[in-house]
Amino acid sequence: MKFIAIIPARYASTRFPGKPLAMLGGKTVIQRVYEQVSSVLNDVFVATDDERIFSCVESFGGKAVMTRSDHKSGTDRIQEAVEKIATDADVIINVQGDEPFIQPSQVETLMHLFDDSTTQIGTLGKRFDSIEAVNNPNSPKIVTDIRGFALYFSRSVIPYIRGVENQHWFGHYPFLKHLGIYAYRREVLAEVTKLPQSSLEKAESLEQLRWLENGYRIRVGLTDVETVGIDTPEDLQRAEEFLKTL
Predict the structure, then answer these.
(1) DSSP assignment letter at 149
(2) Cα–Cα distance for residue pair 33/38, rounded to 1 Å
(3) What secondary structure does DSSP assign to 195-230, as a single string?
(4) In which element (H, E) is residue 151 found?
(5) Cα–Cα distance between 139 and 130 in angstroms, integer?
(6) What is the dihedral of CA 97, 102, 108, 114, to 10 degrees?
(7) Which of 34-38, 87-91, 210-214, 233-237 has the lowest mean pLDDT?
(8) What pLDDT digit, counting tens, does each position of 121-179 carry?
(9) CB 96 within 8 A of CB 180
């Protein structure tokens, strides 16, 4: 099976403009993401709408493709990149451009989900380590069936533990945090990017609910590795401190 990884990277960001080009331990954030993924896959591209990011990627020897600036999601940007690259890969891996600490083991776990021919879309989940983290609406939760396929994603705490005070829920269920890395069979990616926004997606502001609501199956791989995403300048400072511990 042939895999390709595409890293969507925009310059414009409400909370952190120019984030992919921010320096982290002497390298740009986008270079760190690219190098982590390239340690597993030979076929890696950055999909961007900005010449500065494009030039940066080429300067460190990476591959980049220019895409339109009007995409509403990284998934849409990836589909345009797939068309421009004209790849024949069976599976497209979507790695966020603000995850400089993504681990090779996580990419490999995602790839192995497609050993099963029934997997259409893959993603990753990690056990939460505290009820405070579970209660954070910025950390989407996943519930899965016994085969590891997602039943639902939510910003709310799911499932609800009946008859137990919230502060004691943590010991009653293995709450699962969603990590925003995806992989799609190439034909499935082409299909889901043509779907209109769904009611559940609009309600929770979670794009993956559009796919579930339209009947696509998302298999969830498990990882015990915590990533450090960068959404704000404060996150970058925390990432600098994290880098010193590696």
Answers:
(1) B
(2) 9
(3) SPPPHHHHHHT-THHHHHHTT--EEEEE--PPP---
(4) strand 150-154
(5) 12
(6) -40
(7) 233-237
(8) 999 999 999 999 999 998 999 999 999 999 999 999 999 999 999 999 998 999 999 99
(9) yes
